[in-house]
Amino acid sequence: MATFNLFMIVLIIGLAYFFVGQRAAARLRFASDRQLHSRPHYYGFFAALLAILPASAVLTVLAIGDDIVFQSLAAEFIPDTLRASDDFNEVIVMAQIANVVDGVNFGDQPAWVNDAAAAWISWQQTSRMLATISVPSLSLLCGFYGYRKINPDFRSRNAVERIVLAVLATSSVVAILTTVGIVFSVLFESLRFFALVPVSEFLFGLTWNPQFEGAERAGSGQMGLATYGSVPLFAGTLLISVVALSVSVPVGLLSAIYLSEYASPRVRATRQAVDGIAGRCADSRLWILCRTHRCSLRQIHGPFAWFGCCFGISACSRSGHGDHDHSFCVIPVG
Predict the structure, then answer these.
(1) Which of 97, 185, 255, 295 has the most CB atoms less than 10 A away?
(2) Do 179 and 82 form a contact (C-beta atoms < 8 A)?
(3) What is the pLDDT of residues 96-125, one digit of tens each?
(4) What's the pLDDT tens digit per position in 83-96?
């Protein structure tokens, strides 16, 4: 069963335990003379959280970790003669096996690739069967444990608060680790990039034309077909900012003056509501608009290219289309 379907089943089980636990706590409050420590919905929340969180954690580990384990197991199928060759690249070899697993087969593959792919497919089937059985079962068992904890002396509100605090702390740790990973990833990739392209060419080059051939050269300057001068990027960013500010600053300033000095309270309240809706929908709406009318946006590349040529700046037409999309998204609509 797919990961999303399993997650939805876990959510449904948690929702069912919430209503069952809440109803059980409400019956217990009316049937017993003792006062419940917490309100009934806290007992339902406790059972629901126990049904959802452990099962979701196991599902996440299985969804992320199985590919890592499968790659290490599939690496054992690689022949020793291939590992000993000078042009061996494990990333390319594993991608070749993964393509066969996904059904993307380019020509006749070696026998060891087909054997590794067949083993990988069998491991995937076993993993899915294990997840299909273990995840709903764990959700049911944990939810039943939370349901059995319902009694007048159980401090469900404190338990729910501790669980929520633990979830928030875990989310904060994951966010911090993700940020650190992004920083190190950008740092190492930047070091690799500047090992191939000189810093002076990147900072002062007047042509931005990235090509695959540039990955093979080691500091050849302008000798290759690919050039990585960042001056066109800075100039394009500055041009887009000037155009966006020339529209947004007058419109925004005049709108603010009108709303604060001349608009009626009804118009001002309506305008604020429209601004709130437009501010949340502007990025997605403009992105769809730019993607829909991409052909017309490509025609704008002509004036930009002419403007850059006046200063000796050139950019490849293949790499400049996306900048127009972002330039429109910079202009505020609220």
Answers:
(1) 97
(2) no
(3) 888 888 877 766 778 888 888 888 888 888
(4) 778 777 777 888 88
CA atoms of 43 and 17, how far apart (whole Å): 10
Give the CA count within 13 Å in the CB-facing half-sphere of 213: 9
- Cβ neighbors of 48 (< 8 A, separation 6 or more) are 14, 15, 17, 18, 21, 143, 146
Confirm if 21 and 47 have CB atoms less than 8 A apart: yes
Name the pTM for this structure.
Answer: 0.59
Q: Is 281 in contact with 333 (CB distance < 8 Å)? A: no
| N-to-C CA span, the chain | 44
In the sheet that holds 227-228, the strands lie side by side as 227-228, 207-209, 314-315
pLDDT tens digits along 285-321: 555 555 554 444 444 444 445 455 554 554 454 444 4
C-beta of residue 44 within 8 angstroms of C-beta of residue 18: yes
Q: What is the mean pLDDT of the chain?
A: 78
What tokens does 96 get?
A: 């070749």
Chain CA centroid to CA 199, Å: 31
